[in-house]
Write a structure and sequence with these properties.
six-stranded parallel beta sheet, 8 helices, alpha/beta, 18-stranded mixed beta sheet, Leucine-rich repeat, LRR (right-handed beta-alpha superhelix)
Length: 675
């Protein structure tokens, strides 16, 4: 027998408690189908047992929004349970009814040689072995009373983020009863205040996350609950006023993040006395004045984000001279005046530099060229007009994510630019760049390219046919240039038919070819663009029937086919009929919902026949072309990391469609929290 084989079967009492837990679970995808009395419960989905004793030690059902219903706390009576993970689900309630098996469940599972009474013993207390509890990301879960937490005396890690506990006014007291608690995550928990009257003391707490609640007041008591914290995340809590000196009680801080609040005043000089600080984020507040010189003495600091404040005054090498560990620097949307010695060589090597909406220009600071480790650079809207072309483009070519848009860079032919083979984002819109983009896009297989924005320049020539290189492209904007010939984007002089290669591209969310001179029919293959969310083909010379396959694009939230020469019946389908009539205006030969013009029998019959042909042809084509996707919808920052949920994007597309027939859509990325 192999050493990995278990020597014991699942404990019967553990099986009983798990089946009681299952009674309250809504399982539409039948994820718990293996949870039957005939099967050893150590082999059930998400259940892990000790190989020797057969006792349940871990229950992990983090299933990405699959399970719902009620979390029956009887599961916490599993005597040797060490870890419980129910995160990323759709649970609605938490309850603690009698821990007994219902008669229907008893009959359904055909328990042998045991009475219902024997299986309903519920005198046990909660497990003292539990160390890890995660029920985060159950967005509709409300817990009105956390008193049961106080029984989990050994718990070290507790994550309730995105669970509403705001109705429990004693949440802090309940959690403070956990003497071993080391990490506490209460992000977006509906908390409206931090209790300041009662004294609590967390003897072991080292990580505290209270971000994105609505606390307003920043009480001194928050910084007296423990002196051991090294990770403090208080982003987006709507805190007002100045930072209290009591914050300095937390001498062990390595991460401190107050971003996205309404804090004001100057940056405290005593920030510079945090000798172990590695991450400091105070962006998107109302801080003003200069950077205290003491801040430049924190040699351990690797991430500094001062962006989107009212900070001003001179910024020179003296402010950064001792930051030898710095890898991330964000000074965007500040009013500093830069005065760097042209010969200064920084003691650090940055990986990310963001200085958009500042007054760096008109010249590139020479010290920037010493940063050989840069992977992300955003110098957009920073007043740059003078560059040494050979040095600048050579430097840019090694960086994976670049935004130089909204500057005054002109007179440069981009045909000689060679981007990094690993480039993922390149934005250079609103400049005066000229030349052909053929070599820029086709000199190599741009397998990692996700975002390309060269709109509002003086680019000319035809768009090259190298679509196959762009396997991960999500956003392409070449609008408002002087491009001619076949392919892309709005407000150019593009003519000819929409190429089939275009609608076979992958990773695309939005396609905008409006205000051009395109002719011919919409390719039937457009039905394979399963992830397409926004489609604008308005103000062209397209003709023929709208292919019925367009109804297959089930996530389409914005559609504009107006002012073309389409004829016949608008394809039927809930998705298409949900759009307003303005999506089809300016096509006098179109009929059917949502237009007021009804189709006659001949048009309906003809439309139905064409629909069948389209569907058959589309199916065969899909076997060879696969699923394509369209041009994606903007990016928030060159180095953002998370897309917002699809439903929010849908609402945004709906709204933008009513704004004077204008589509320049932006897709936001949400900066993932550190740690």
């Amino acid at each position: 027998m192999a050493m990995s084989n278990r020597l014991m079967r699942c404990n019967e009492n553990d099986k009983r408690l798990l089946l009681i837990f299952k009674q309250g679970v809504v399982d539409p995808d039948n994820k718990l189908s293996s949870w039957t009395v005939e099967e050893d419960c150590c082999l059930w989905e998400g259940v892990h047992c000790d190989n020797i004793t057969g006792r349940v030690t871990e229950l992990s059902l983090s299933t990405t929004y699959t399970l719902g219903g009620d979390i029956n706390l009887c599961v916490l009576q599993l005597e040797f349970l060490n870890s419980l993970d129910l995160s990323k689900n759709d649970f609605k309630t938490v309850s603690m009814p009698p821990c007994q098996i219902s008669k229907s469940l008893f009959d359904a599972h055909k328990f042998h040689n045991q009475s219902l009474a024997a299986l309903s013993n519920h005198s046990a207390s909660f497990s003292v072995a539990l160390r890890y509890l995660d029920i985060s990301d159950n967005d509709d879960l409300f817990i009105n009373d956390l008193h049961w937490l106080s029984q989990l005396s050994s718990i070290k890690y507790l994550d309730l983020s995105y669970v509403d506990i705001g109705n429990d006014t004693k949440w802090l007291q309940h959690i403070a009863m956990l003497p071993s608690l080391s990490e506490l995550n209460l992000m977006s928990c509906g908390l409206t205040n931090f209790p300041s009257g009662d004294y609590v003391n967390f003897t072991s707490l080292t990580v505290l996350v209270l971000s994105f609640n609505h606390m307003v007041k920043l009480p001194d008591s928050l910084f007296n609950i423990t002196h051991h914290i090294y990770h403090l995340d208080l982003r987006g809590c709507n805190f007002h006023g100045q930072l209290p000196k009591s914050l300095f009680n937390l001498q062990n801080l390595k991460l401190l993040d107050f971003s996205s609040n309404n804090l004001e005043g100057s940056i405290p000089y005593w920030f510079g006395q945090y000798e172990q600080l590695q991450w400091l984020g105070i962006s998107q507040n109302l801080f003003h004045g200069v950077i205290p010189s003491s801040l430049g003495n924190i040699s351990s600091l690797s991430m500094l984000d001062l962006s989107h404040n009212q900070l001003n005054g001179d910024l020179s090498e003296k402010n950064l001279a001792n930051l030898s560990s710095l890898t991330y620097l964000d000074l965007s949307s500040t009013s500093f005046k830069l005065h760097f010695d042209p010969k200064w060589v920084p003691p650090f090597q940055l990986e990310t530099l963001q200085v958009s909406n500042t007054s760096i220009g008109p010249n590139i600071p020479p010290w920037l060229y010493t940063q050989q480790s840069l992977r992300c650079l955003d110098i957009s809207a920073s007043g740059i007009s003078n560059i040494d072309a050979d040095v600048f483009w050579s430097f840019i070519s090694r960086i994976d994510s670049v935004d130089i848009s909204k500057n005054l860079i002109g007179g440069h032919n981009i045909s000689k630019i060679i981007l990094s083979a690993n480039i993922s984002h390149f934005g250079a819109s609103y400049n005066s760049l000229s030349g052909s983009i053929f070599s820029l896009l086709c000199h190599q297989e741009s397998e990692n390219l996700e975002v390309l924005d060269l709109s509002y320049n003086n680019l000319s020539g035809t768009l090259p046919d190298c679509w196959g290189n762009w396997k991960k492209l999500r956003y392409l904007s070449l609008g408002s240039n002087k491009l001619t010939g076949i392919v892309d984007l709005s407000a150019n002089s593009l003519s000819g038919e929409i190429p089939e290669e275009l609608v076979s591209m992958s990773k695309i969310l939005s396609l905008n070819l409006s205000r051009n001179y395109l002719t011919g029919k919409i390719p039937k293959e457009i039905g394979g663009m399963k992830n397409l969310e926004s489609l604008d083909l308005s103000y062209n010379k397209l003709l023929g029937e709208i292919p019925s396959t367009i109804s297959n694009v089930s996530f389409l939230a914005y559609l504009n086919l107006s002012y073309n020469n389409f004829i016949g019946q608008i394809p039927s389908g809930t998705q298409i009929q949900s759009f307003d009539s303005w999506s089809f205006l300016g096509n006098p030969e179109l009929c059917g919902d949502p237009l007021p013009k009804k189709c006659n029998k001949k048009e309906e019959t003809h439309g139905s026949k064409l629909a069948e042909e389209d569907e058959d042809d589309s199916f065969l084509k899909s076997l060879y072309l696969g699923m394509g996707v369209g041009f994606a919808v903007g990016f928030w920052g060159v180095c953002g990391s998370l897309f917002l949920v699809r439903a929010w994007r849908h609402k945004f597309f709906r709204w933008i469609g009513h704004l004077a027939d204008q589509l320049y859509v932006a897709l936001a990325l949400y900066l993932k929290s550190f740690g």
